[in-house]
Amino acid sequence: NLSEKFQGVLKNLRGHGRISEGNIEEALREVRLALLEADVNYKVVKEFTAAVRSKALGAEVMASLSPDQHFIKIVHDGMTSMMGGEAQDLDLARRPPVPVMLVGLQGSGKTTSCGKLALHLQKKKRRPFLVPADVYRPAAIEQLKVLGSQIGIPVFDSDPNADPVDICREAVRQADLTGCDTVLLDTAGRLHVDEELMEELRRIKEAVDPGDILLVADAMTGQDAVNVAKAFHEKVGLTGVLLTKMDGDARGGAALSIRAVTGAPIKFVGVGEKLDALEAFFPDRMASRILG
Amino acid sequence: ARGIGPVDENVLVELEEALILADAGADLAGEYVVALRAKWRRGELPDIAALRLELKKMITNTLAPRMAPIPVAPPYPFVVLVIGVNGVGKTTTIGKIAHLLREEGHPVLLAAGDTFRAAAIGQLRVWAERVGADIIHHKEGSDSSAVVFDSLRAAKARGTHVVLIDTAGRLHTKTHLMEEMRKVVRVIGREIPGAPQEILLVLDATNGRNAITQAKTFQEVIGVTGIVLTKLDGTAKGGMVLSVTKETDVPIRFVGVGETIDDLRPFDAESFASALF
Ligand SMILES: Nc1nc2c(ncn2[C@@H]2O[C@H](COP(=O)(O)OP(=O)(O)OP(=O)(O)O)[C@@H](O)[C@H]2O)c(=O)[nH]1
Ligand SMILES: Nc1nc2c(ncn2[C@@H]2O[C@H](COP(=O)(O)OP(=O)(O)OP(=O)(O)O)[C@@H](O)[C@H]2O)c(=O)[nH]1
Ligand SMILES: [Mg+2]
Ligand SMILES: [Mg+2]
Question: Which stretches in chain A have pLDDT values below 70?
Fold first, then answer.
């Protein structure tokens, strides 16, 4: 982990009494390598280490900390603040039914996360409605229906031959009629470079005017995270991120990359396959995890 | 510095950056650049084109020994166990492989070994129908080993050539799930000596360094005889496969390049190297 790797480097810092141009480069190099190994995007790493350098060199000497402790604090605090502020929930402060779109690459965990969010909302005494808007993947509609029945939440009976835009529009209408206040739209996995499918997302957004558009991203995602996040953000405007599979051992640097290129807050974290495996996002915990 | 002109340090830095962005990892990217710099300084690389060609050659040479198809052969049934973490494309890849085998005239049977995830069985049934394969499944929530056992029984009785066993996605960090998979391997081996002849690990090209941990852990705990790298039709380059190759010496059977039945290519080291940077 970072502090272990740092020991040698930081001993050097400590020996010099304060952080200076001369002794900081080795420490910065260790930070850079640690972040790359954690899958933070190369360009984001460059920006981050530049910010750490200027902060560390410009910083006043902190009486209570030795230079190596001070350096680690700058790195950790810098990462935590880049991760975003306090945990945020869905943006539900508008006239119901509030549509929420879940979007992202194939296999990232959207359908499962829809089920998790439905349970989360039910626990908060809201009345969610699940909508299968994936008409392409075999048994995708069935998958969401099974999840809905596991937690007693109604699921729109999507027609697999219909246009997903019509499905979403019709489902919001039905939610309105049946008194459901939150509509969770499970969209098909798609490549950010698939123009037709990205256009489909834009049309869904236009048709239902969602309160939240969440990018569902796999915590194991590598350097490509920035390309994906940027493209989805530019096409539909992300209001939040849901990071899945955080119960594994991926360091999750993609979280920092996604945050850096979209500014969207990470709202939730998926920590397992069951529907109760959803947690709020804590920036400082994520920072520690990425730094190892 | 895009492809033409003399080499300088900037060009080397740019190539190192391109390799890192392709998920080759900082250490490996550094090693390649050190080797390239040495050749350049010895005057072996006159221009950027030569430099890029040399890098492509080095990468191709690393990966070429990993090109080998699944060795489907009698005695039948030839059993392929498909494993990997959640959402990487196991079920879809089984459909694609089944299609290839069907085109070659092999009778194929799919075993719906994912008895856990919602509609996993339904998903595999659609694929079985699409490719003209038999399928054995129980109810959702039933015991995965029991499905596997029944599938092998059925395959032997029907003269099936290839059995493709779908399994639930599992993170390599979940000891009880890895143990469940070891049990499935034992069940297979008891029913058909020598089986499974192929344990196929599916890796997702959009993953970063974690793919290497996945490969090492699955190989260590369960054994892996082949790899499929999926989702190369996106912008992720799958550079982690270079480290996977160094750390495990497992053949890469196929690459997945889309979601439909034909979107599977035999792994080709040279095309992979060309697309990497
Ligand atoms: N361990 C773990 N597995 C997860 C998590 N979230 C989802 N999964 C699993 O990831 C796999 C893919 O989940 P899906 O919900 O089908 O993913 P998707 O994004 O809807 O997939 P497509 O619709 O094909 O794009 C399933 O095996 C899920 O059980 C998580 O937080 N942790
Ligand atoms: N673009 C693209 N998508 C793929 C590829 N392979 C699979 N997919 C998609 O990835 C998603 C997940 O595929 P699955 O086959 O369900 O993955 P899995 O590993 O069986 O998932 P679990 O059983 O839930 O662990 C689906 O939407 C597939 O269509 C590929 O090569 N390219
Ligand atoms: Mg889905
Ligand atoms: Mg599957």
Answer: 1-8, 10-17, 61-63
- The answer to whether the Cβ–Cβ distance between A221 and B209 falls below 8 Å is no
User: Chain A: residue nearest B20 by CA?
Assistant: A42
pLDDT at B1 over 60: no
Nearest by CB to B118, from A136, A146, A218: name it. Answer: A146
CA–centroid distance, B83 to ligand 1, in Å, is 15
For residue B239 and ligand 2, the question of a CB distance below 6 A is answered with: no
How does pLDDT run across B94-111, given as a tens digit for each residue?
A: 999 999 999 999 999 999
Query: Of A147, A193, A221, which has the smallest distance from its Cβ to B206's Cβ?
Result: A221
Q: What are the chain B neighbours of A245 within 8 Å (beta carbons)? A: 85-87, 171
Phi/psi region, residue B233 (left: phi>0; alpha: psi -120 to 50; beta: rest), is alpha
Judged against a pLDDT cut of 90, whether residue B268 lies above it is answered with yes
The CA B183 to ligand 3 mean position distance, Å, reads 29
pLDDT of residue B38: 95
**For B95-153, how does the pLDDT look when each residue is reduced to its tens digit (9 = 90+)?**
999 999 999 999 999 999 999 999 999 999 999 999 999 999 999 999 999 999 999 99
Q: What is the atom index within ligand 1 of the atom nearest the CA of A271? A: 31
Q: Quote the pLDDT of residue A58.
A: 80
Going from the Cα of B214 to the center of ligand 2, the distance in angstroms, rounded, reads: 17
- The DSSP bridge pattern shows strands B252-256 and B264-266 to be antiparallel
